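Below is a concrete protein record.
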Amino acid sequence: MKKLLRPFFTPMGRKNTEAVTGTLLLLFCVEHLAANLFLLWPDPAPYQWYTESLGRSLLIRIMEVGLFALFIVHIGLGMKMRLHQRRVRMMNPRIPKVTNFASRTVGYTGIVILIFLVIHLARFFVPNRITRPTTFDLYEQAHIAFANIWYMLFYVVSMAALGFHLRHGIKSAIFSFKRLPPSSIPQLRRVGGWLAIIIPAGLAYIAVHIFITQ
């Protein structure tokens, strides 16, 4: 077992694992944006049907456990890699500093996203799945939350952090996947760059739209 897991604990193994978990979490962000677009509809029925259908599915429940595992692995490895990089730079001050803003602040944006996840899960996931599964209306509660200027602003700031985090993460993941055809890398970077804008901007727009129209 140790021999099988050993590659994952090497610097390159950690970087590849971080890239894979980040890519899977990116797919979740795409799905989350698509689902949240239903919040823009004045009729709550489509959103309620979607969320209730997911809640009843055993497969989705299993996938939720996997999603939590992805977050834990991604966050844990990310913190370990940041600390390792900091130690290396302290021992080798001649190493050139990163000039790209998204790369330079990836640790800070990760912390903002982690704080957001804890608050957001406590606000929506816990009551919907654990404490009030039969009475908690996600559509109604989302509109109540985003009607609050402080929660809306907190959400928008968190989405800005997500955008910078995705910008760095997608670029880093493409670099980590060594077997990608070289000819596809420029196109993947363009697509990744657009995703890093569209996903957080779309989620932030939903929050602002609900705040304005309430």
